[in-house]
Amino acid sequence: MPIRKRFTRGHYKLAGVSFTVTATDGRARRGELRLPHGTVQTPAFMPVGTRAAIKALTFDQVDVLNPDIILGNTYHLHLRPGDDLIARAGGLHKFMGWAKPVLTDSGGYQVFSLAGRRTITEEGAAFRSHIDGRAHLLTPESVVDIQARLGSDIAMIFDECAPWPAERADVEAAMERTLRWARRGRDRFQALQRGDAPEVPRATPGQRQFGIIQGGTHRDLRDRSVAGTLDIGFDAYAIGGLSVGEPVDVMYDVVEHTAAQLPADLPRYLMGTGMPDDLVESVARGIDMFDCVLPTRNARNGQLLTRHGVIAIKNARYAEDFGPPDPDCTCSTCQRHSRAYLRHLYMVGEMTAASLNTVHNLHFYLDTMESIRKAIEFGTFEEFRQAFHRTFTRQHVP
Amino acid sequence: MPIRKRFTRGHYKLAGVSFTVTATDGRARRGELRLPHGTVQTPAFMPVGTRAAIKALTFDQVDVLNPDIILGNTYHLHLRPGDDLIARAGGLHKFMGWAKPVLTDSGGYQVFSLAGRRTITEEGAAFRSHIDGRAHLLTPESVVDIQARLGSDIAMIFDECAPWPAERADVEAAMERTLRWARRGRDRFQALQRGDAPEVPRATPGQRQFGIIQGGTHRDLRDRSVAGTLDIGFDAYAIGGLSVGEPVDVMYDVVEHTAAQLPADLPRYLMGTGMPDDLVESVARGIDMFDCVLPTRNARNGQLLTRHGVIAIKNARYAEDFGPPDPDCTCSTCQRHSRAYLRHLYMVGEMTAASLNTVHNLHFYLDTMESIRKAIEFGTFEEFRQAFHRTFTRQHVP
Question: Where in the sequence is the domain holding B70, given as residue range(s)?
Answer without folding.
Answer: 19-292
